[in-house]
Amino acid sequence: MNPRETLERSDALIAEGVRLFLQEHDIALSIGREHTEHTPLRYVRALRELTSGAGVDARSVLRTEFEEDGYDQMIVVKDIAFTSLCAHHLLPFIGAAHFAYLPDKRIVGLSKIARLIDVLSRRPQVQERLTQEVVNIFYSVVQPKGCALVMEANHLCMSIRGVRKTGALTKTIALMGIYRDDPSAKAEFLEVIK
User: Fold this and answer.
1) Residues of the chain predicted below pLDDT 50
2) Per DSSP, which regions of the chain are E strands?
3) For residue range 160-171, what is the model confidence (pLDDT) as tens digits?
4) Would you call 172 helix, strand, or coil by DSSP?
5) Using CA atoms, how far apart are residues 124 and 91, in angstroms rounded to an integer?
6) pTM surpassing 0.85?
7) DSSP state at residue 58
8) Residues 80, 100 contacting (CB under 8 angstroms)
9) What is the DSSP track for 101-154?
10) Nearest-CA neighbor of 145 among 79, 68, 80, 77?
11) How far is CA 148 from the centre of its chain?
């Protein structure tokens, strides 16, 4: 069986499980079968898309670098939208990332920062780990003087179930190099992303 056939078979098995879940809870009956007939496969495809970063080498996103050509000031990319899945409930958390780095010898294309966040966020996980993982990988591959990241997200696992606190915003911060060691660099970053 080739990889495509294996994937299709896997999707069909998972979709059957979803179909049984819907059937067991009479969900199809309550909203109409025409709306739910293809829902199991749609769900599997959506889940596959939301976890598409699993198994991808995130470091490869940063392989295209350029000499910094004398630029030695902070580079900031704000409001990078991301969606991830809570590893505990497989429900989305959705937010924005604000990233900065101080180049040493190299810079990267700005889109590479967004792609790194995209690849890493497309895995089931917790926001704290995601935030730290982005700066760890960027710092080790690009080797800037420092990098910093603030991620803000609304977690559906907290707003639509459990404590049901709609609008609660979770912020996580990870700092490396100068942003961790120099309070004035950290303060400048936090001021810029306000």
Assistant:
1) none
2) 65-67, 75-86, 92-102, 106-108, 124-125, 146-155, 170-177
3) 999 998 989 999
4) strand
5) 9
6) yes
7) G
8) no
9) EE-SSEEE-HHHHHHHHHHHHSSEE-HHHHHHHHHHHHHHHH--SEEEEEEEEE
10) 68
11) 16
Enter the tokens of residue 143: 């080797």
d(CA 111, CA 156): 27
Length reported for the chain: 194
Residues 6+ apart with CB under 8 A from 63: 141
Q: Could you report the per-residue pLDDT of 30-69, keeping only the tens digit for each?
A: 666 777 788 889 999 999 999 999 999 999 999 877 877 7
The reported pLDDT for the residue numbered 79 is: 98
Specify whether the CB–CB gap between 130 and 95 falls below 8 A: no
The kind and range of the H/E element at 45 are helix 39-50
